[in-house]
């Protein structure tokens, strides 16, 4: 008998006859969490993610590139990793270089340029799939065009978010989008720049992931 | 690496291996007499308790969410064998390789086997208490593979050749000055600084180089979702994401109990976990991994493995009451609120998991022979049970474990090492005590004799008089005083 069979046999010998009804998760959320307008959700999202030290800027659908340029200039960053296979990445790559900001692409598998990613990539630009108001959380679903390490290795991560894609809760997001029917290789909730309180409970930002997280929020009218 | 130095004055005498519970009293005494450690733990626990309280302003919301959390955990445990098979099927379909281990030795052999297949030299580790439980770092070292902790707290305790003293905040027993000294002495080219931001940046620099070159990334698992075949990880630093994304191979290890059937079971448990653990409404990162790198994807590990570890959990599972131990989501709130843990810290217990959860889970992992007295390190005040986000009746389980440990060995015990703490004389004394208090006539006689012969009481009364004045029966019993009233 294998370890697998022995473990399962021991557990099966003690399994209760019935597990009872499925836990009523939807019922709990229906009675304990309200629904808000897009503007209210945007406000709440912004409040919580700012508490977690992210920077949030209101932008318009056409005008976000100008804000992106301003943010990079203010931080004195002249190099931005982009995903040219996405509409926002392509736009950044066509419009930023004339303004003096180089926009290298994430086009090759990481093995061929890992050292550059780790040592010579000061910032990156990706989109969020959506967000969660109650915790101030970005939902990221990395894709072949916009890979996983983009939102992790560069010290500054800038994210484009459409405010109409903000959900009230994590539960609502996964239900509305039918996540249980198929998740990508990696999906992420990100709620601020990387941090730690492991030394004497003193909060410090920039532990292993991005030191700064910037959100460009489209449609936030504030 | 040099040998650990247990005599270093500022440190808890620690062990790199599990210690039998006989050393508990001595270790606890050392901490109780050390004002620095007392202050570290008191301060940290007060901080964590107030942060948790601030996250649950509405008692109704808290209690109903705890009810839901308990229900979810009990539902999933009731279906555990079925869900493990479902998880295995779906992970395999997604391309994640599943391994099963009954013991720590088997788990280490599986992990090191994968490392050797890839001729790995360096493994970077995200925070995983199960990897501590199996003492993977020692096994890796013995096999000539570097195992580097990358969670800041874990990195610090590894540099100090110690074990974590708290399951969420591993270096909680250390002051920033001690950490400054540790970095200065152990990290080449680092000047002494006790600025916390500077210290974290030093750790970041050192570990970034390792994430870049590591062959293997190891992580724990907070929730494994059966219906989708997904491994979920909770963290703040980003090292968990590094370990699971940057190296070419990712190995995850988890206890068999951390499984949920439905993806929708995750949001309530995640909310309970982060709010109870560190008082955060959510952690910085919640990482859901469902497959290795697919064709066309440009990063992520090409291989992902999951090791499912039993190590005594199936023993707890077999008993309806003890099964509740497995509801745990490892938030650490029970230790943060425990008056005993707060005073003696995590190392005194001598086990991987300290505090109330350690006292109820360790006997299943190590047997009662090695943990006979652990359940007695409690005043049964009930704080742990009151804050447990999934309503594990910890005090009730502590009483049960005392019974298992101290009653005479019998046939078909529910636990390995049942009766390990049994002592015929102590047991006879308690039986006599029970008989006296169970019979009014006997009680009258014995208390009368006690008041007459009170001068016969010895001056030294075992453990009692080590820190207290001796006990002596009153010259007159309550019964006598009542009779004398006019």
In summary, what is this structure?
The complex is a heterodimer of chains A (222) and B (486). Chain A has helices at 3-12, 25-32, 38-51, 64-74, 87-95, 114-119, 170-176; strands at 55-59, 123-127, 130-132, 137-140, 156-162, 166-167, 186-190, 195-196, 204-205, 212-218.
Question: Biggest chain pair contact, residues each?
Answer: A-B, 80 and 100 residues
Spatial separation of the terminal alpha carbons of chain B: 79 Å
Give the DSSP E fraction of chain A (strand runs of 2 or more residues).
Answer: 15-25%
Tally the structural domains of chain A: 1
In CATH, the homologous superfamily of chain A goes by the name NagB/RpiA/CoA transferase-like
Which CATH architecture of the largest domain in chain B is right? Answer: 3-Layer(aba) Sandwich
Terminal CA distance of chain A reads 65 Å
Give the count of helical stretches of chain A. Answer: 7
Task: Write out the CATH superfamily name of the largest domain in chain B.
Answer: NagB/RpiA/CoA transferase-like
CATH topology of chain A: Rossmann fold
Compressed to H and E, one letter per element, the order of chain A equals: HHHEHHHEEEEEHEEEE
